[in-house]
Design goal:
The protein is of the alpha+beta class. The chain has a single domain, classed as Archease domain (Archease, Possible Chaperone, Chain: A, domain 1, 3-Layer(bab) Sandwich), CATH 3.55.10.10. It has two helices and eight strands. A hairpin with a 5-residue loop joins strand 1 and strand 2.
Length: 137
């Protein structure tokens, strides 16, 4: 199964993340968000970023998860390349991202400025889950 697909969008960019489980779809959405910006092939998992978020819907949990990762990575100068999610269940998600310094990495695209609610969807599909998210770049 492909981790994610890039979605065509007029001014921004988006992904459709896939996973055999809901947690894996959330992990792949995070990977896709960073992979749009950086060549992650040489990133090691030395730095850890732990996230705990709560929300009423799966879609809101996805936005919260990705937004916190994006903010933490920007503040700490990290490119995150590996992710683990517990949940999401009961409106709560615990997750961790691992990566390394973003300085000096080859850029693949413009930086993600924000995670949007436009066309946002988290759906169970045959064989697993999909998470659609559009990023402001």
């Amino acid at each position: 199964m492909q981790r994610y697909e890039v979605l065509a969008h007029t001014a921004d960019t988006g992904i459709l993340a896939h996973g055999a489980s809901l947690a894996e779809a959330f992990e792949n959405a995070a990977f896709g968000m960073f992979d749009l910006v950086f060549d992650l092939s040489g990133v090691t998992g030395a730095e850890e970023c732990r996230v705990e978020v709560e929300a009423e819907t799966l879609e809101e949990l996805l936005v919260a998860w990705l937004s916190v990762l994006l903010a933490e990575a920007e503040i700490r100068g990290l490119a995150l390349a590996r992710f683990a999610v517990e949940g999401p269940a009961g409106g709560r998600l615990l997750g961790t991202g691992w990566g390394g310094p973003s300085a000096g990495l080859e850029l693949r695209g413009p930086p993600v400025k924000a995670v949007t609610y436009h066309d946002l969807a988290v759906d169970q599909v045959p064989g697993g889950w999909q998470a659609r998210v559009i990023f402001d770049v």
